[in-house]
Design a protein that fits this description.
With about 240 residues, the protein is of the alpha/beta class. It is built from ten helices and ten strands.
Length: about 240
């Protein structure tokens, strides 16, 4: 299976997204990317998610972990930040030896069908090249109501799996019970997104078996130690 190339043997994974610089620019912990990636790798992260620039700038530090290339993007200066465009082809990632591909889809966006086409096209290419596909599927956009976030998350995860994703990253729904519905309704592994910057004790108390923690990692005053704690909890090392 392609997913075996990304997941550790225990089937659990800690992914640190480092792709916020495309959307927000050089803020906080994203100013010195090589330095921050070095700290994350030293903390034991299983994989880092980012754009091609991160891979090229930090390649020496990435030898000790896996890298997932996000092939879709938007910026805060676009007319609609919820709209995603495709930047790279899967074949280019394969040539570089990258370990996985990521595609972002916003289920509530008015551009959902365009994003779904990208997801399907990339899923087919990932299947062809036997490289794992991580879908970032969020209940986000102009068409998403606040009272529909749980249902939207359940649908987003299932939609991504149906389109061909090997693993899905999505938002936490607010409770263990409702997030369990997301997992039960999705035939592929689900990764819980870390969410906005919050106190460390709240994060560590709510960690699941598979986590992506971006802002709470790269904006942390001691990134290496924080990632090490997350890794220990997820992999039952502490």
């Amino acid at each position: 299976m392609a997913l075996e190339k990304l997941l550790p043997e225990d089937g659990k994974i800690v992914v640190i997204p480092m792709d916020d610089g495309m959307l927000d620019g050089p803020v906080g912990g994203l100013v010195d990317m090589p330095g921050k990636v070095k700290q994350i790798v030293e903390g034991g992260a299983d994989a880092i998610l980012g754009f091609l620039g991160v891979y090229k700038q930090c390649k020496d530090h990435l030898k000790k972990t896996k890298f997932v290339l996000n092939v879709t993007a938007s910026t805060k200066y676009s007319m609609n930040p919820q709209e995603k465009v495709q930047l790279y082809d899967v074949s280019q990632a394969v040539d570089l030896g990258i370990n996985g591909i990521a595609v972002h889809v916003n289920v509530g966006s008015v551009h959902l069908h365009d994003q779904l086409q990208i997801l399907g096209r990339v899923a087919a290419d990932c299947t062809k090249y036997k490289i794992p596909l991580l879908a970032i599927a969020y209940p986000r956009g102009e068409m998403m109501r606040e009272d529909g976030l749980v249902e939207g998350t359940i649908y987003a995860a299932r939609m991504a799996a149906e389109a061909g994703a090997d693993i899905v990253k999505t938002k936490y729904t607010g409770s263990v019970e409702t997030f369990r519905q997301v997992i039960e309704g999705c035939p592929v592994p689900v990764i819980m997104a870390g969410g906005p910057k919050i106190p460390e004790d709240q994060i560590l108390a709510n960690i699941e078996n598979c986590m992506t923690i971006g802002r709470n990692s790269f904006h942390h005053e001691n990134t290496t130690e924080f990632v090490r704690k997350v890794y220990g909890i997820v992999h039952n090392k502490q």
